[in-house]
Amino acid sequence: MDSSLHADVTAVQDISVISSILRVVLQTTGMGFAAVARVTEDRWLACEVLDQVGFGLKPGDELPVKTTLCDEVRGAHAEIVIDHVAQDPVYADHHTPRLYGLQSYISVPITLADGSFFGTLCAIDAKPVAIRDSAGHHMCRLFAELIGRHLDDQRMALSAQAELAEEKAMAELREQFMAVLGHDLKNPVAAVQSGTRMLLKEPQSDKARFILQYMTQTAARMSELAENVADLARCRMGAGVLLNIERERPLRETIEPIVEEACETHPERTIEARYLLHRDVPVDHGRIGQLLSNLLSNALAHGATDEPILVQASADADGFALSVENGGEPIPDAERARLFQPYYRGDATRTKGLGIGLFIASQIARAHGGRIELHCENGRTAFTFIMPLQTARPRLTVVE
User: Does this chain's domain 3-159 share its CATH topology with 252-391?
Assistant: First the structure.
């Protein structure tokens, strides 16, 4: 038996009510043998059988298809019902009843939703049985339709499972690719950044300095993107954001250089900073720098170019807050709920990048026991990281 036919036989046997269906068929028709058969142009296979008269067939057995009336049912896509073979004008001299010693017979086609023929629900007996237009006849029709629907449901479920498995495999491959890409981009980007910094220290023409500043800005964006891609892959693959907490390092040493670098790489923009850091805060300084860099990049990309960007950092007994505020059009309400989802880019006409910077920032905030809040009012938009100090602790955040 080839694999596809074996699967069809198994599919019928997996229908939990199939044995009950065959039992009811025999009870309502008064016949002694009932079966669900898979019928093709060249094969007849018993999928499930209930034999109370010793006909001799078991599930998985075959009959030569041309010796069966089910072959005619397949060809015509129409049922065959015989009450008494010896008195039937069509089948009295037919080779099938003579070969198998049949006097009563019913075979109803099992058709799938796409119109294809699967097989038959059939019943036979060696004695005459008044089956045509009886309750048993109508029951067989209903059961054949029910079996067809069960088979359709099974095929749809298997197809959905196969599609899900394929999509999962593709997703895993995509995340692995992103992890490798994010990791492998870091070294060459770092080399470009180092080279442009060295060149900027040397005397340059105005044109050369402009080009080097542009290269520095681009390299910084590439470095940020590589780090975000690597972090996204780690989050999506279950590794999460792991923190390295430092408790006695001044936060200003982390925040100020990032603001200064943004000013250097975007000399056409105005960036102001206000620091009210009255105490040290236990955080992962590298991650806080990454969070701030992502929020600044978002403000530079979407904020009004003729309005200043304001960075504010404060730390007191209640907690730590770090915000980036820019002017410009407010973010539509419909977009706000999805801003922190990976790959979400909102309005494609105004959104740049892959749409993962805010997602990574939100995961860093969560890993610190904090959150990022969004406020839009009076023509200003502010993303604020808030971390209550009593909950700040290193922990692993896994994104599901």
Answer: no
Closest CA to 288 of 257, 265, 316: 257
Reading the chain (400 residues) residue by residue, the pLDDT tens digits are: 677 888 899 999 999 899 999 999 999 999 999 999 999 999 999 999 999 999 999 999 999 999 999 999 999 999 999 999 999 999 999 999 999 999 999 999 999 999 999 999 999 999 999 999 999 999 999 999 999 999 999 988 888 888 888 887 776 666 666 555 655 666 677 777 788 888 888 888 888 888 887 787 777 767 766 776 666 666 665 556 778 888 888 999 999 989 998 898 888 999 999 999 988 899 999 889 989 998 998 999 899 999 999 999 999 888 999 999 999 988 888 888 788 876 655 554 444 555 678 888 898 999 899 999 999 999 999 999 999 986 444 444 444 3
CA–CA gap between residue 360 and residue 236 (Å, rounded): 11
C-alpha 46/C-alpha 60 separation (Å) is 5
* Parallel/antiparallel/unpaired status of strands 117-125 and 33-39: antiparallel
195/189 Cα distance (integer angstroms): 10
CA 339, 345, 348, 353 dihedral sign is positive
Fold of 252-391: Heat Shock Protein 90 (3.30.565)
Task: Please give the DSSP secondary-structure letter assigned to residue 53.
Answer: S
H or E, element range at 318: none
Residue 62 φ/ψ region, left for φ over 0, alpha for ψ in the -120 to 50 degree band, beta for the rest: beta
Domain boundaries, the chain: 3-159, 164-236, 252-391
Q: Which residues pair with 125 in a beta bridge?
A: 104
Where do we find the tokens 């502010």? 382
How large is the angle between the packed helices 206-236 and 135-200, nearest 10 degrees?
Answer: 150
> Helix (H, G, I), strand (E, B), or coil: what is residue 242?
coil
**Alpha-carbon span 99 to 37, nearest angstrom:** 18
The CATH number of the structural domain formed by 164-236 is 1.10.287.130
DSSP 194: H
Fold (topology level) of 3-159: Beta-Lactamase (3.30.450)
Query: Whole-angstrom Cα distance, residue 380 to residue 325?
Result: 7
Q: pTM for the complete prediction? A: 0.49
From the number of C-beta atoms within 10 Å of its C-beta (0-12, 13-18, 19+), residue 129 rates as buried
Retrieve residue 305's tokens. Answer: 């170019």
